[in-house]
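Folds abound. A case:
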Amino acid sequence: MELNNKNWDDFVHVRWRVQFLRHMLQMHQTSPKRGTAAWAHEEEDYVQRLEEAEMKLILFPAEWHALPDSNIPS
C-alpha cells in the first residue's frame, strides 16, 4: 500500500477508531447496568464494532503503526 495523504488519513482514522472503541468497551465494563440484557446487547455491539475496526487496521502496513499521527513523514 502506498503512503499517500488519503491512505494515511484512512489509517489514522481507523487507528483512532480502534483506540476509541477499546476505551468505550473498558468504560462499558464498569457500568452499573452490567449483567442486564440491555448491557449484554450493548457489549456485543461494542465487541463487534471493535473487531471490525481491528480487521480494517491490519490491512495497513505494520511499519505505519510506529509513525506519529501528524502529517505523512517525508
Summary: DSSP finds two helices and no strands in the chain. The first helix runs from residue 5 to 29. The chain has a mean pLDDT of 90. The radius of gyration is 15 Å.
